[in-house]
Amino acid sequence: MSDPATTWPEGVARHVLPRSSSTNSDALRLAPQIEGKAWIITHDQFQGRGRRGRDWEMPKGNFAGSLALRPDGEPGQAALYSFVAALALADAIAAVAGPSARLALKWPNDVLLNGGKVAGILLESSGQAGRVTALAVGIGVNLFAAPPADKSAAFAPVSIREETGITVSPEDFLDQLAPAFAEWESRLLSEGFEPIRKAFLARAARLGEIITARTGTAEITGRFEGIDASGALILATAAGRQAVPAADVFF
Ligand SMILES: O=C(O)CCCC[C@@H]1SC[C@@H]2NC(=O)N[C@@H]21
User: Fold this and answer.
1) Per-residue burial over 105-125, b = 16 or more CB atoms within 10 Å of its CB, e = otherwise
2) Which position among 50, 65, 92, 163 has the lowest Cβ density within 10 Å, counted as fewest Cβ atoms?
3) Which reaction does it catalyse (predicted)?
4) Which residues, other chains included, contact 33 with Cβ-Cβ below 8 Å and sequence gap of 6+?
């Protein structure tokens, strides 16, 4: 019997591009033309985008890939895919980086390896009449080298190779990531957000501790109590419980 963790999911195409400005742009362009889903990865992404308008640098040998989807749902439902992606990423990194790798998820969707940022996720979408008709789940993983540290970033970047000595190609990484994503997505679709929420919190960094969320207009410090049914961060602050839908978190 084949190992379910490394079986390529049915109905999912795979494209490997030598160069791309951004695989998220490719995925959004491709999504309206596909029947099922498609992963697009590239060996050279030269205008990668990060969260909150930041650039995403991709040193050679790292992973840059996006899943093109046509969810046809509300934006709030589509946003839950960032938690699906975070869990799948954590599974895929654990599979390649070995048992000594200390992995944690940082809300909303960074993956930390030995306390540094090893991977990030950027969801982008297009749609009409309040429905998301094309979704790009963009994922960057520092497989080979950490990019230079950005002063505004909450965590220093690290890479799997530099932390563990293990080298993995983007194609082999995708062979772990795609099945893991398909499994978590099927749980979301069949059981709803609750098991995803619980699994995320089981791996969340600094749950129960004092953290700071910067939203761009405000800085909110409080005890990290959990995440709600929409994926918002719940902080217990001096002014009461607050739900933070989007922010950068600092420990
Ligand atoms: O800021 C973050 O942490 C999110 C980074 C997301 C980067 C990935 S790389 C593949 C995809 N294409 C992009 O332009 N961005 C995402």
Assistant:
1) bbbbbbbbbeebbbbbbbbbb
2) 50
3) biotin + L-lysyl-[protein] + ATP = N(6)-biotinyl-L-lysyl-[protein] + AMP + diphosphate + H(+)
4) none
Give the ipTM: 0.99
Q: Give 73's DSSP letter.
A: B
210-250: CATH number: 2.30.30
What does the DSSP assignment read for 210-233?
Answer: EEEEE-SS-EEEEEEEEE-TTS-E
What residue segments make up the domains of the chain, in order of their start?
12-202, 210-250
Binding pocket residue ranges, ligand 1, CB within 6 Å: 22-24, 45, 48-51, 54, 56, 64-66, 110, 120-122, 138-140
Six-digit token string for 70:
């046509």
DSSP 120-183: EEEEEEEEETTEEEEEEEEEEE-SS-PPPPPTT-SS-B--HHHHHS----HHHHHHHHHHHHHH
pTM: 0.94
Q: Please determine whether the domains at 12-202 and 210-250 fall in the same fold group of CATH.
A: no
**62-86 burial by CB neighbour count: b if 16+ within 10 A, else e?**
bbbbbbbbbbebeeebbbbbbbbbb
The residues, ordered by sequence, that sit 6+ positions from 17 with a Cβ below 8 Å of its Cβ are 23, 26, 40, 41, 42, 43
**Which of the listed CATH numbers 3.30.930.10, 3.40.50.10490, 3.10.450.50, 3.40.640.10 matches domain 12-202?**
3.30.930.10
Ligand 1, atom 15: nearest CA belongs to which residue? 49
